[in-house]
Design brief:
Elements (H helix, E strand, L loop, with lengths): L2 E4 L10 E4 L9 E10 L2 H8 L17 E9 L11 E5 L9 E5 L3 E3 L6 H5 L2 H13 L7 E5 L4 H11 L4 E6 L4 H6 L3 E4 L4 H8 L6 E4 L5 H7 L7 E3 L3 H7 L12 H13 L7 E6 L3 H8 L7 E5 L1
Parallel strand pairs: 8-9, 8-11, 9-10, 11-12, 13-14
Antiparallel strand pairs: 1-2, 3-4, 3-6, 3-14, 4-5, 5-7
Helix pairs in contact: 3-4, 3-9
Bound molecules: NADP nicotinamide-adenine-dinucleotide phosphate (NAP).
């Protein structure tokens, strides 16, 4: 029987387990994908604790995961354009991608370019569409300056590269350990922590035009203090500050159809214009170790599970 990540109650990392489950059968418009790689994301850990149970209700046992890449194993009725053996990138909205076999709506898939590695493809969806949505949200123009917090994280590492492609100057807030990676992607690294506002002002003598916050914890207030207009500030995580100051919260949902954005991002990766740094790859059976690393919140790029 195929294996899948599951949990039977809300809780810490120790509620995660890998169960044997019934083989899923594709219905109308669905395909069955044999997963080669599935990314993990901080929001999954938050949902698992139950603190957002009102906003994101769960039924138990719950599966986990949105990101996936794999090979089509079986095609349901009414599916055109895909057949078994096709290599695909996609997503599940049913918290189910961290598994050996997963059912996916055919419209939530795009073809994987041959030269995009499995772990990159499998970690692309959540961070990719979120970074795409956030960068478009702040409407950058050539010659402007944007600051990105959490600049080397899953969303941030893509956001800085997509922002740079607009011709904007990009300042990335990070720890010392990510300075070199940011510089190698033509991003100006600035250390976060005490005195960050002064360091940003020194790095941007002409002022800051836009701010993308992927970390929370006061960066919306920092953006306002730097003189950035509320409509040029996007936070994907600090919803309380967004409500208080009227800044944007555009992420993946604002990016439009997921498969279309995935196809665009995959093409950029295939052509060498976009890098998804892979911090670590764990076998599915080590899902607890994978989230232990993720929840330290110092990942560069993505952590990915390989069933
Ligand atoms: N609204 C949406 O649609 C949406 C979608 C995806 C994610 N999210 C949310 O967005 C957030 C980021 O997700 P992610 O996947 O990018 O997370 P992640 O990969 O875990 O982010 C890790 C990054 O955070 C940085 N960081 C740690 N402490 C920091 C600090 N004090 N100041 C600035 N940066 C700091 C780390 O930098 P160093 O290693 O350099 O310390 C690391 O690069 C999460 O809260 C997630 O739930 C929202």
């Amino acid at each position: 029987m195929p294996k899948a990540v599951r949990y039977a109650e809300f809780g810490g990392i120790d509620v995660l387990r890998v169960d044997e489950v019934a083989r899923p059968v594709p219905g109308d418009g669905q395909v069955l994908v044999r997963v080669k790689a599935a990314g993990i994301n901080p929001s999954e850990a938050v949902i698992r604790t139950g603190v957002l149970a009102q906003m994101f209700p769960s039924t138990f046992p719950s599966g986990q995961g949105s990101d996936l890449a794999g090979v089509i194993e079986e095609v349901g009725a009414g599916v055109g354009g895909f057949s078994s053996g096709d290599e695909v990138i996609g997503f599940s909205n049913k918290r189910s991608s961290q598994a050996e076999l997963v059912l996916v709506e055919a419209g939530d898939l795009t073809r994987k370019p041959e030269n995009v590695p499995w772990e990159v493809a499998g970690g692309l969806y959540v961070v990719g569409v979120t970074a795409w949505g956030a960068v478009h949200s702040v409407q950058l123009e050539k010659g402007e300056t944007v600051v990105v917090s959490g600049a080397a994280g899953g969303v941030g590492s893509l956001a800085v590269q997509l922002a740079r492609r607009t011709g904007a100057t990009v300042i990335g807030l990070s720890s010392e350990s990510n300075r070199e990676w940011l510089e190698s992607h033509d991003v100006i690294p600035v250390a976060y922590g005490d005195g960050v506002a002064d360091r940003i002002r020194a790095a941007a003598p002409g002022g800051v035009d836009a701010f993308i916050d992927t970390y929370g914890d006061g960066y919306v207030e920092l953006a306002l203090a730097l003189g950035v207009a509320p409509e040029r500030i996007d936070t994907i995580t600090d919803f309380a500050a967004a409500a208080k100051y009227g800044v944007k919260t555009d992420g993946g949902a604002a990016a439009g159809p997921g498969a279309k954005v995935l196809a665009e991002l995959a093409a950029l990766i295939a052509d060498g214009h976009l890098e998804v740094p892979i911090a670590n790859v764990y076998p599915l059976t080590q899902v607890r170790e994978a989230y232990t690393e993720l929840e330290r919140r110092h990942t560069r790029g993505k952590i990915v599970l390989r069933p």
